[in-house]
Structure formats: C-alpha cells, structure tokens
C-alpha cells in the first residue's frame, strides 16, 4: 500500500475540477495550471524513484483487497510512461500559453487538458481491466472536446468521425471484457493472468486476445486501423496536436504491451506473430503516407503511424532485448514527436501555414529554430548519436537474432524513408530564399515560443549521448515486464 | 435463456452495424447507441445469468448473485449515455455548419 501511486491521477483531476470554476480568469488559470503540471512532474519522478528503489508499488482503492477491488499498480514500465506523459504535459502547456487563442482558453481548455492527463496517467497505472476502460473513456471524452475545440468546419467534420470510431472501439472493448469475465470470472489483470495460465481453452482466449488487439490497435493506430489518425490530428492547434501525437496513441500501445506480456502469453506462436506482421505493415504504410504528403502536420501524423510499428515490432519479437528496445523507442518517440509537432506550431505561427510548398528560407531568418528542428528531425530518422539510432538498433539487432529478416528489412527501409521525408520538410521550410518580409515576423517573439521545445530537444540529445545507462534502465524495465510473475506477485500477495 | 439472450444481443448488434454503415449522420449515432446496448446485454449474458439474493448481509447472504457484471454495465451505460449526448450535439453542429447530414459529402477533399 502506498498512497503516492494515486498522486499522478489525483493531481490533474483535482486541478481540472477546480479550474472549471475559474474560466473567466485566464491569468489565474495560466499560473495555477503551470504550478500544477510541475507538481505532477515532480510526483511522477518521485514515484519512479520509489519504484526503482523499492519495487512495484500498489494501492487497493477503498481498501478492498486485490482480486476483488480495483488496484492501481505502479511498476517500472507504467511509471516511466507517467513520467513521459508529465514531461510532454509541461512542454505542451507552456507552448499553449503562446499559441492558443483567447476563445479556446476561455472555453475550458485547461480543465480538459488536465482531465486528459488524468485519463492518460490512470490508464498507465491501473491494474484492473474494466478500470482501464473507464480511464480510456476519461481520456477519450477529454480528447473529443480538445479536438473539436474552436469548432472550425474542418474540425467538426473530422471530429465526428474520430468520436464515432473511438466509440466503436470502446464498445468492442466492452465485448472483449465480457468474454474475458465470462472465461476467468475476474477483471483484475494480475488475477486474469493467473486464471489464463490455468485455463486450457487456447482458442477462446485467442479470440479475446485478438479482440483486445483490435481495440487497442484502433486507439494506437495500427495497420489497418490507422485511417482516422492523419486527418483528425491535422485539425486542432499545435499544442493540442502535440499532446495527442505524443501521448494518445501510446496509451493504446502501452495497453497492447501490458496485456500481451502479462495476460496473453499462452500462445505466443500465434498472437505475437500476428503482432509482428501488423508491425511490419503499420511501419511501411505509415511511412508511405508520410512520403506522399506535402504538409508539415500531415507528414508528422503519418510518421506517428509508422513509428508505432517499431514499438509493436519490439513486442512481436518478444525477447528481453527487443522489449527493451521498444521501451526505449516509446520514450524517444514521445519526446521527439511532441517536439516536432511543437516545431510545426512554431513555423505555423511565423508563416501562417503548414503547407510545405508555401514556406521557404526560414534558415536565414530563424536560425535557432532551424537547427534545433534539424537535430530533432534527424533524431527521429535515427542518425547516431541521437536517441532515434539507439532505440532502433536493439530492435533490428534482436530481429536478426530471431531470424525475422523480413521485418528487419522493412524496418531499415522505413528508417530510410523517414529520413527522406524529414529532409523534405527541412529543404522546403528552411532552405531557399526567404519568402517572408521582415515586417511579417518581427512582432513574433521567438524566445517564449522556443523555450517549451528546448527541454524536449535537450532530452533527445541526452537520451542519445547517455544511451548506455538509459538502455540498461530499459533492460531492467523489460526484464520486469517479460516475467509476468513479478507483476502478479506484487499485486496479489499484498 | 442464455441462447435467447445471445440471439437478442446478436440481433441488436447487427442492427447497430447496419445503422453504422448508413450515410446519415443521425443514423450512425443511433447505430452506436444500439451497439452499446448489445454489448451491455452481452456482458450480462456472458458472465452467466443468475438468480439469487442481492449481495447484502442478510439471512440470504449465502446465495447472492454476482453483483460485478451489473456494476460494470451500470458504469458502461453512464459512459455511453454521456458520449451519446456529446455525439448528438456534435452531429447537430456539424449539420449546421456543413448544411448536410450526408456522410458521403463529408468525406473531405481528395488532396487532404
């Protein structure tokens, strides 16, 4: 029992609830939400330290013991995700101060920002499958509101589809839950894992596993369920898009990794082969979409899809090294992708467009922006010594060890195409003769705009140069999640 | 009884899927509602239809029915109610702004 586990869920929840009352005081909202995200980050880092030192922490809500009540479980993987979401939360909030319009601020941006973080952190920390559904819904409802906020024609059209698709996925989630509850008689994930090991109905279990894979794949934008993503992430302003791009799909990926390392390990020959195949297709089609686009935000959205593939590839290979690579990749991706979306927002603020063909020559007028973007872009593409390289390397290495050569070839080609499309952005936006007059951009202060992005850029450099300790940390995390008994013992033997 | 319940929820889900594939905005919302109801019935059925006392500490406490599916369904109903309300408002606004409720016309441009 440790109450600190609750803090990353409780802090944003209380803050969001209180901020609803103060919608007419933007200054107060800004200051208090700034303080709250740092509190959140601090509590997350403290929790990570605690879990690293003392092992898995759990809390039984309402003091109902483990298989009966709802438990929150903080193991290394989930707390790492909470820390990453808090980091992105800080960066996007401070970027939102600079770019968000007054109307959006007034119409409950900050409360729903915090409710979204509540849902995300809750999904990472919960140890109960139905509670995961509830936190998913908390996250989704907030995301519905944030994605449609502003109510432009484009946003309304795409948000409608986004809501319907996610609602459909949630209903499938309920069906899968019904199936699992009927089979095992429990909803506690650790207890389900125990029951699944004793059941001998691999066929029905595989059905439940694939149903859950479809559900989480829809949220996490896996092939062939990613079609909703590029259009819906294009609509909202950059601060919100960055938060979505960094976090929301990763909640789906987290849920896939959690369920397929803890619960559905009875028939890895079938389930994990399916996952590996999906990973290959996701990577390849995602990057093809990115190559064909000429819009800053759309290219980035398609890259989310292709990179989700790498994470799932780590799960599909299912060795400690591959899982460690996947975890490293998730950390790298959340940071870099949010940073790139924020860069898209910054250039949009300067040039007033996200169309690559209408921009040029920003290298001369905004050199700091250009070079920090360059670092982040090549980090995404996987150029050493930045974090992208060290996160792809173990994945490809373990692919070769497992003799899954096809996926290795696909991953390498996708890396190359990623580099190509990032360079396309760099060439179009930053090279060439400056198209803007000095009077167009002089009034935009770059320092407050770049300040929230810089920590993320610094983090990708640190993740790259300190690859040795960070990779050994993700190996510790991988060792913890690849052996379900550690998680089960921590939850059930309280 | 189980068979009947399963067939019922199957029919409801089939109706939901049919509505989901139509072109009218409002019908899609109804489809989602139907699907949700089907899923709720399925939870009740798959966890075993039981007859028993309420789970309270009385003289019949030994023979109580499993309360968890009902709690789960109640939560799911509340959530789907909330989202349906939001979805209806969103559909209405979309209809108002775009002046059409035909999803074929809401596809967006080819170059997007």
UniProtKB/TrEMBL annotation, chain B:
Major site of localization recorded for this protein: membrane
InterPro entries: CPA3_antiporter_subunitC (IPR050601), NUOK/Mnh_C1-like (IPR039428)
Signal peptide: none
Membrane topology annotation: Multi-pass membrane protein
Top-level taxonomy: Bacteria, Bacillati, Bacillota, Bacilli, Bacillales
Localization, UniProt: Cell membrane
Any single Pfam family the record assigns to this protein: Oxidored_q2
Organism listed in the record: Alkalicoccus saliphilus
Gene Ontology CC: plasma membrane
TM ranges: 6-21, 28-48, 68-90
Protein family: Belongs to the CPA3 antiporters (TC 2.A.63) subunit C family.
Keywords: Cell membrane, Membrane, Transmembrane, Transmembrane helix
Protein name per UniProt: Na(+)/H(+) antiporter subunit C
């Amino acid at each position: 029992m440790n109450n600190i586990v609750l803090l990353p869920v409780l802090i944003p929840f209380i803050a969001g609830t209180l901020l609803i009352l103060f919608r007419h005081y933007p200054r107060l909202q800004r200051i208090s939400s700034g303080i709250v995200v740092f509190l959140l980050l601090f509590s997350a880092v403290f929790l990570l330290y605690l879990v690293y030192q003392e092992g898995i922490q759990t809390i039984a809500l309402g003091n109902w013991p483990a298989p009966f009540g709802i438990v929150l479980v903080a193991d290394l993987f989930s707390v790492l995700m909470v820390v990453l979401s808090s980091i992105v939360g800080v960066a996007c909030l401070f970027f939102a101060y600079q770019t968000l319009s007054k109307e959006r601020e007034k119409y409950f941006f900050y409360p729903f920002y915090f409710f979204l973080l509540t849902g995300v952190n809750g999904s990472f920390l919960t140890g109960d499958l139905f509670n995961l559904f509830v936190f998913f819904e908390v996250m989704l409802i907030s995301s519905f509101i944030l994605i449609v906020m502003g109510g432009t024609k484009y946003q309304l059209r795409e948000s409608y589809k986004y809501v319907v698709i996610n609602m459909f996925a949630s209903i499938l989630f309920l069906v899968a839950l019904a199936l699992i509850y009927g089979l095992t008689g429990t909803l506690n994930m650790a207890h389900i894992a125990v029951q699944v090991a004793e059941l001998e109905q691999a066929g029905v279990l595989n059905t439940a596993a694939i149903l859950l894979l479809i559900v989480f794949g829809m949220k996490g934008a896996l092939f062939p369920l990613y079609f909703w993503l590029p259009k819906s992430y294009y609509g909202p302003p950059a601060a919100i898009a960055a938060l979505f791009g960094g976090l929301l799909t990763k909640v789906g990926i987290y849920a896939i990794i959690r369920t397929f390392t803890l619960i559905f390990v009875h028939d890895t020959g079938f389930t994990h082969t399916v996952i590996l195949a999906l990973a290959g297709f996701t990577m390849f089609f995602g990057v093809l979409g990115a190559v064909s686009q000429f819009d800053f935000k759309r290219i980035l959205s398609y890259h989310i899809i292709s990179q989700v593939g790498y994470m799932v590839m780590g799960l599909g290979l299912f060795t400690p090294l591959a899982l460690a690579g996947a975890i490293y990749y998730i950390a790298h991706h959340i940071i870099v992708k949010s940073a790139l979306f924020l860069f898209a927002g910054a250039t949009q603020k300067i040039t007033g467009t996200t169309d690559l063909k209408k921009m040029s020559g920003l290298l001369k007028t905004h050199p700091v922006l250009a070079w920090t973007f360059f670092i982040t872009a090549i980090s995404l593409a996987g150029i050493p010594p930045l974090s992208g390289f060290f996160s792809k390397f173990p994945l490809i290495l373990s692919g070769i060890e497992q003799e899954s050569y096809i996926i290795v070839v696909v991953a390498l080609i996708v890396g190359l195409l990623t580099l190509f499309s990032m360079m396309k952005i760099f060439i179009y936006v930053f090279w060439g003769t400056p198209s803007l007059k000095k009077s167009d951009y002089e009034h935009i202060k770059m320092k407050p705009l770049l300040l929230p992005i810089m920590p993320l850029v610094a983090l990708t450099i640190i993740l790259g140069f300190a690859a040795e300790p960070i990779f050994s940390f993700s190996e510790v995390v991988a060792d913890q999640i690849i052996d379900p008994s550690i998680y089960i013992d921590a939850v059930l033997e309280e | 009884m189980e068979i009947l319940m399963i067939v019922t929820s199957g029919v409801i889900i089939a109706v939901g899927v049919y509505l989901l594939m139509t072109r009218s905005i409002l019908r899609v919302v109804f489809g989602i509602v139907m699907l949700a109801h089907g899923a709720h019935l399925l939870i009740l059925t798959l966890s075993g239809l039981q007859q028993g006392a309420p789970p309270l500490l009385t003289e019949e406490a030994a023979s109580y029915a499993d309360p968890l599916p009902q709690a789960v369904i109640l939560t799911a109903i509340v959530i789907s109610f909330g989202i349906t309300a939001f979805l209806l408002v969103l559909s209405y606004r979309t209809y108002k702004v775009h002046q059409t409720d035909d999803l074929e016309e809401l596809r967006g441009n080819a170059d997007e």
